[in-house]
Design goal:
By secondary structure, this protein is of the alpha+beta class. The protein has two domains: 2-61, no CATH class; 111-279, Rod shape-determining protein MreC, domain 1 (Thrombin, subunit H). Helices cover 36% and strands 28% of the residues. The protein has five helices and twelve strands. It has helices at residues 2-8, 10-24, 27-61, 65-103, 274-277; strands at residues 111-120, 129-132, 145-148, 151-159, 164-168, 175-180, 186-191, 201-207, 221-224, 236-245, 252-257, 267-273. The protein has a six-stranded antiparallel β-barrel with strand order 1-2-5-4-3-12. A hairpin with a 2-residue loop joins β3 and β4 (151-159).
Length: 279
């Protein structure tokens, strides 16, 4: 009789044993087990990402010749625009270098772009985190800035061997020093809670009282200030949609509208300092 009862409650005994072990285990054991679990789980997520790309490839093979021809013309136009942008960026970089030498200013650190595919995104933390397909073997480090064509994506929170966890700019744990375009006064930006299917947004604090939002089609744009040493200056963050009186009364607070493309990110770029990427 006792043996039957013991067999019946065996799952609960095992569960209680695991909970007690986890509560009494040292911190380094917990950290080791957590890292081992993530590294064991990573190949499954990465493989699923490759399978999705393979499905997209074969879906593209089913397109008609007319659709492929139109897509080729669009790509040719984009390539022409990008070639002009490359020449423009090169001339601007040379002008910046000339001015730095003239004014005897220290050069800003150079970065290289480590392109990474988005592996997965949890609906429960849609506006908080995402996982990318690059890790420590690609010289990705915790705290590295992550960007895309629309500006700031977020910051690397945790690095594993083959994948990394990125805190999105809409995450409530993200705080940046930003400036308004055409203005050098520093403003504080932080993420805020957003619904899974809502628009990404943030909050701007300590906005000067002379800043106004008049034209909804010409909203004030926020850019990274370069302070803090994480994000280079001049990266787009978002637009101030409306302003209200701040808690202290001396400044304004505003809702920040982020880029809508953050909803469906497929590929991002991690900024890695050139010095870190050299052996």
């Amino acid at each position: 009789m006792f043996r039957k009862q013991l067999i019946q409650f065996r799952p609960f005994i095992a569960l209680i044993s695991v909970v007690v072990f986890w509560l009494l285990a040292p911190v380094f054991i917990k950290s080791l087990l957590k890292t081992t679990f993530y590294e064991f789980q990573a190949p499954v997520s990465v493989t699923a990402s490759y399978i999705r790309e393979l499905q997209d490839f074969w879906a593209g093979r089913l397109q008609s010749k007319d659709e492929i021809y139109e897509a080729g013309k669009d790509l040719a136009r984009l390539n022409s625009v990008y070639e002009l942008k490359v020449v423009e960026n090169q001339s601007l970089a040379e002008e910046v270098a000339r001015l730095e030498e003239l004014l005897q200013l220290p050069s800003r650190p150079g970065y290289r772009y480590e392109i990474a595919r988005v592996v997965e995104r949890d609906f429960n933390s849609w506006w908080r985190q995402l996982i990318i397909r690059k890790g420590s073997i690609h010289n990705v480090r915790p705290g590295a800035p992550v960007v895309f064509t629309g500006g700031v994506v977020g910051r690397v929170q945790e690095v594993r061997k083959y994948t990394s966890v990125v805190n999105l700019i809409s995450n409530i744990d993200i705080r940046l020093a930003v400036v308004l375009e055409g203005d050098n006064r520093v403003i504080s930006y932080t993420g805020t809670q957003s619904s899974a299917f809502g628009k990404p947004r943030g909050i701007a604090e300590y906005v000067p009282t002379d800043i106004k939002v008049v034209d909804p089609n010409n909203l004030p744009r926020l850019l990274t200030s370069g302070l803090g040493g994480v994000f280079p200056p001049g990266l787009p963050v978002g637009y101030i949609k409306n302003l209200r009186q701040g808690a202290g009364g001396m400044f304004l607070d505003g809702d920040v509208e982020l880029d809508s493309r953050l909803t469906h990110l497929n590929e991002v770029a991690v900024l890695i300092p050139i010095l870190d990427s050299q052996p």
